């Protein structure tokens, strides 16, 4: 069974600083995908970034980057130059292999990020 | 449509009543997923469809929960004989193909409260 662990229930960061949100995962599959989603107070789920298990380079999307350490089974999200609008709940999620019913996402419990002036 | 549309946005029902939650995915999206999110928790998988075929229903908590997507587009999640523990946000998501690398587009959800 797949499992996602986010050990930081809450994080604070100063505006314009960088912040790392931790995510570790557990799977016996060789092929899998890792996602990060942002959920602001409005409740919507916003896709941020994706990393495939076979991708050799860390994924980046604008101010978001994913620090993928496969041997340690970690997929931390790094947000650079934090903005007030980054205050939200952040979820790490994993999708299993394409075969064997791997389309469902398994989510972590989330990290509540607050950006301060 | 432009996004994933869910209705109703809010539903309050009395314990023991049946409820039907609707999801209208992005036009052309093959895969449709249902998740349930308790307050302060991450979404929990319920079931998913490719076209009209239900591919995985392993997350449905019990036989009071069922889902259908008869024409491969709109889907309905039905909860029979609702209980207070069913209160949660129910989210639908769709993707162009199964397991897309570019994420899944989520709807705004239906907040179900069972009183």
Give the count of helical stretches of chain B: 0
Strand content of chain B: over 45%
- Report low-confidence residues of chain A grouped into runs of 5 or more: none
Which pair of protein chains has the largest interface, and what are the residue counts? A-B, 24 and 27 residues
Class from secondary-structure proportions of chain B:
mainly beta
User: What structural class do helix, strand and pairing data of chain A support?
Assistant: mainly beta
- DSSP strand tally of chain A: 12
Uncertain runs of chain B are none
Radius of gyration of chain B: 13 Å
What does this structure look like?
Chain A contains no helices and twelve strands. By secondary structure, chain A is an all-beta fold. In chain A, strands 2, 5, 6, 10, 11 and 12 form a six-stranded mixed sheet that branches. A four-stranded antiparallel sheet of chain A has the order 3-9-8-7, with no helix packed on it. A two-stranded antiparallel ribbon of chain A has the order 1-4. In chain A, a hairpin with a 6-residue loop joins β5 (33-39) and β6 (46-52). Chain B is built from no helices and eleven strands. In chain B, a hairpin with a 6-residue loop joins β7 (65-68) and β8 (75-79). The mean pLDDT of chain B is 93. The interface between A and B is medium-sized, with 24 and 27 residues.
List the helices and strands and how they pair.
The complex is a heterodimer of chains A (117) and B (115).
Chain A: E1 3-5, E2 10-14, E3 19-21, E4 24-26, E5 33-39, E6 46-52, E7 60-61, E8 64-69, E9 74-79, E10 88-95, E11 105-107, E12 111-116
Parallel strand pairs in A: 2-12
Antiparallel strand pairs in A: 1-4, 3-9, 5-6, 5-10, 7-8, 8-9, 10-11, 10-12
Chain B: E1 5-7, E2 10-13, E3 19-24, E4 31-37, E5 44-50, E6 53-56, E7 65-68, E8 75-79, E9 88-95, E10 105-106, E11 110-114
Parallel strand pairs in B: 2-11
Antiparallel strand pairs in B: 1-3, 3-8, 4-5, 4-9, 5-6, 7-8, 9-10, 9-11
